[in-house]
Amino acid sequence: MMLCFQEMYTFPSFRAIRGEDTESLYAKVYGEICERFGKTYGWDVKSRVLGRQAPEVAELIQSALDLPITKEEFLTESRMKLEKIFPTAELMPGVSKLIHHLHKHKIPIAVASSSSEASFQTKTTRHKDLFGLFHHVVLGDDPELKRGKPHPDPFLLCAKRFQPPVPPEKCLVFEDSPQGVKGALEAGMQVVMIPDEKLNPDLKKDATLLLKSMEDFQPELFGLPAYD
Fold first, then answer.
1. What is the distance between the alpha carbons of residues 159 and 157, in angstroms, rounded to a whole number?
2. Tens digit of each residue's pLDDT (9 = 90 or more) over 83-98
């Protein structure tokens, strides 16, 4: 998931961060399906699908591991399994603190996610109040979105929907996926990456700033008000 922050006062604008920890849920479900056919959903495949939209994920996994089911069957089964466990999604450490901090300082934020509307609502079931602080949401099935990550389209569309629209160079992206980092950089934005520690180091090197946790983020480094 991603957040966008609009320019306020003399602060830069921002866009993007995964708010809830759903990647472990995806890995669990994808791993179970692959294991049933004697295949391993490892990091060589996982690093390629992080941040992508569900239909593309299904196609990539089915093709990469040569699963004896169609991509449509993989997509249907994974969606059914994920719908059952998405409501258990927890916020990642440091996310709630940052969101409330930005809201307190009247810095608008927005969500950009590769998730569909239905998946997003299920994922955020336990965090409706927190996500109610966002200015707007851009999702993977948005009718105005032509291409998802690793293309820059989701980032540019999210920035455009602020009132007034935010120029890319005034945006900072918080990302966990190589695909998201690539898209944000192509959009002309800065990127703070908070990846899984198991991700190949070569896939982390392009980010503007690399962190182990959102708890390590220092807002003042990017011109934002420091934490109290």
1. 5
2. 999 999 888 899 999 9
End-to-end CA separation in angstroms for the chain: 26
Considering the chain, what is the average pLDDT of its residues?
Answer: 88
Choose among 65, 131, 72: nearest CA to 103: 131
Among candidate residues 194, 150, 139, 145, the one with its CA nearest the CA of residue 172: 194
Instruction: Identify which of 21, 85, 82 has the alpha carbon closest to the alpha carbon of residue 57.
Output: 82
**pLDDT tens digit string along 37-69?**
999 999 999 999 999 999 999 999 999 999 999
| Token pair of 88 as six digits | 């258990």
User: Between the CA of residue 95 and those of 82, 188, 204, 224, what are the distances in Å?
Assistant: 22, 24, 20, 15
CA dihedral 181, 176, 7, 227 (to 10 degrees): -140
pTM above 0.90, yes or no: no
Q: Whole-angstrom Cα distance, residue 224 to residue 190?
A: 14
